[in-house]
Specification:
The complex is a heterodimer of chains A (about 160) and B (about 375). Chain A has 5 helices and 6 strands, in the order H-H-H-E-H-E-E-H-E-E-E. Chain A is α+β, with helices and mostly antiparallel strands and about 160 residues long. In chain A, helix 2 packs across helix 3. The model of chain A has no long low-confidence stretch (mean pLDDT about 90). Chain B has a 7-stranded mixed sheet with strand order 2-8-7-6-5-3-4, sandwiched between helices. A 3-stranded antiparallel sheet of chain B has the order 9-12-11. With about 375 residues, chain B is an alpha/beta fold. Chain B contains 13 helices and 12 strands. The chains are: A alpha+beta (about 160), B alpha/beta (about 375). At the A-B interface, helix 2 of A face helix 2 and helix 11 of B. The structure holds pyridoxal-5'-phosphate. The site of pyridoxal-5'-phosphate has 13 residues of chain B, from helix 5.
Chain lengths: ~160, ~375
């Protein structure tokens, strides 16, 4: 990965000035490179990593991981069925997998019934879907490389020569 | 009356009492005074030690250290620094700190002189004095010591030259051509060389060149290195000496009686670091490099002028424009802006007029420190 993208991925609030100085580049070059990456879709958007458990109690969301076995279509493979699925706003992530099943769908809903209905009504009824297996999420420990539980703050000495 | 050893009694405590007493317990300060990585030892290394504990590896090891570690260390030195040592020429120690003590005690007699380029890390002078020798400081205004500077200090009593590069506190190193000249001087005057290369892995533009790689030098070079800095393992207390069998046959007597062996847990951690820790090490190094670049630019902008450091994670800017002494500057900055830096004179000859900043802290905090230092300078 290029170094500017790497830095921004870790901390999207770094300014072009900071990045330029860290990487020994000119501020203009860094701005230009960021603009390019925004234009060509390398940088999709800037967002904060939120630990939702810390937010004031909202209505609990339900997250499910749904394994789907599908019959791939001639010429289109898995892409056509994938598109049918990922267009649903309830679907937050979708992956094509190797192994026992084909598609892994991550679905978010307001409650169990919602998700169950989505699976039985929308997913399992799609042509080419052979079977589904739904797993509800119980607890998140780490997401996208970020540990969601506060690590103990490390004590360091103030001075060490 | 119970009495202490005279040499110990006469030895001043490290650093500047007044300043360090203020800093040590302060809670609401940002400290740029910590000489260690801001990374925790990588998880795979910690996890490897859980396993060694499960297996019940809690015993003494050979005085020399685990053979597997000595072999890995020899291989590492060859791969990274092109120096050739057999596993039998490696002795595992309790950090480079113990290695320095052992090396000095192994070679020094009462009245010998130790040639010590300063400013430098604080342990060499007191340990040399404790061994009955006299430390003779040499310095260069550029902080890049030359063979000439060293040769001028040679007397019939000279016994050893201590090289510690890349340097704590300056971050500068000595280039290959000069190292070769220094080697020549050591040969000419029949001197030992103690080379503390603990920051050897952390060099940014140029590759580190070890004086042990100069042909014909192996017998007089006592090379030491450790895991504290590059592998983020300060608390494990692990280092090593690479030197001739003749030297080690003497040195091991001290190590055997004073330490017996380095902790076995730390030795397993070190094996893991050498076998699988290079990618993380490179990542950490990259992150120091970025912060070095930032600090070099930022400090010059606020009038704390400095040449670009070449390695380690320190920068040693001038505070001349403040018209304060190093200690006054550090005290003032601490009191007014709650930022701790180390007064340069602590590191010996040539350090006055400078402060040591360790930039191995969180980038946002580093920026905050620069802003506060700028405010402090403007308020003078
Ligand atoms: C130049 C130098 N040598 C040795 C040490 C101590 O290393 P260790 O942790 O291996 O005892 C330090 C620590 O700051 C250092 O800067």
């Amino acid at each position: 990965m290029n170094e500017i993208a790497e830095l921004l991925q870790k901390d999207a609030r770094l300014t072009p000035e900071d990045i330029a100085s860290m990487l020994n580049k000119s501020v203009e070059d860094v701005r230009e490179k960021i603009r390019q990456m925004e234009d060509d879709g390398t940088i999709i958007k800037y967002s904060a990593v939120i630990n939702e458990e810390k937010l004031p109690k909202q209505k609990d969301k339900v997250v499910a991981f749904i394994e789907i076995q599908v019959q791939p279509e001639r010429e289109k493979g898995f892409d056509a069925i994938a598109e049918r699925i990922y267009q649903f706003p309830q679907v937050t992530s979708l992956y094509l997998m190797s192994g026992r099943y084909d598609l892994l769908v991550v679905v978010e809903g307001d409650n169990l019934k919602d998700v169950a209905f989505f699976v039985s009504d929308k997913l399992s009824t799609l042509d080419n879907v052979k079977s589904t297996a739904t797993h509800f999420l119980l607890k998140k420990y780490k997401e996208n490389g970020t540990m969601l539980f506060k690590q103990n703050k490390l004590e360091r000495l103030n001075v060490a020569l | 009356m119970l009495r202490f050893n005279n040499r110990i009694e006469q030895m001043p405590p490290s650093g500047i009492r007044k300043f360090f007493d203020l800093v040590i317990d302060a809670k609401d300060i940002i400290s740029l005074g910590v000489g260690e990585p801001d990374f925790v030892t990588p998880w795979h290394v910690r996890e490897r030690v859980f396993y060694s504990l499960e297996q019940g590896r809690t015993s003494y090891t050979s005085n020399w250290g685990l053979m597997e570690l000595r072999k890995e260390t020899a291989k590492y030195l060859k791969d990274r620094f092109a120096v050739n040592y057999d596993a039998s020429e490696i002795m595992i120690t309790v950090g480079v700190s113990e290695a320095v003590d052992i090396a000095l005690r192994t070679i020094l007699n009462e009245g010998d002189e130790v040639i010590l380029p300063e400013p430098t890390y604080v342990c060499y002078r007191p340990l040399a004095e404790l061994a009955g020798a006299k430390a003779v400081a040499v310095s260069n205004p550029s902080f890049k010591i030359t063979a000439d500077d060293i040769e001028k200090a040679v007397t019939p009593k000279s016994k050893v030259i201590i090289l510690s590069y890349p340097s704590n506190p300056t971050g500068y190193t000595i280039d290959r051509a000069e190292i070769e000249k220094i080697a020549e001087i050591a040969r000419k005057h029949d001197l030992w060389i103690i080379s503390d290369e603990i920051y050897g892995e952390l060099t940014y533009e140029k590759e580190h060149f070890s004086i042990a790689a100069v042909p014909g030098m192996k017998d007089r070079v006592i090379l030491m290195n450790g895991f504290s800095k590059a592998f983020a393992m300060t608390g494990w207390r692990l280092g090593y000496i690479a030197a001739s069998n003749d030297f080690l046959a003497q040195a091991v007597k001290i190590h055997q009686y004073a330490a017996l062996c380095a902790p076995i847990m730390a030795q397993y951690a070190a094996i893991e670091s050498l076998q699988r820790g290079m990618p993380e090490m490179e990542e950490m190094k990259k992150s120091y490099w970025r912060r070095r670049n930032y600090m070099f630019e930022a400090l010059n902008k606020i009038g704390m002028t400095v040449n670009r450091p070449e390695g380690a994670f320190y920068i040693f800017p001038s505070i001349e424009r403040s018209k304060l002494s190093s200690e006054e500057f550090a005290l003032g900055l601490l009191e007014k802006q709650r930022v701790a830096v180390i007064p340069g004179d602590v590191f010996g000859l040539g350090g006055e007029g400078r402060v040591r900043i360790c930039y191995a802290i969180d980038f946002e905090l580093l920026k905050e420190c620069v802003a506060r230092m700028e405010k402090f300078i403007k308020s003078l």
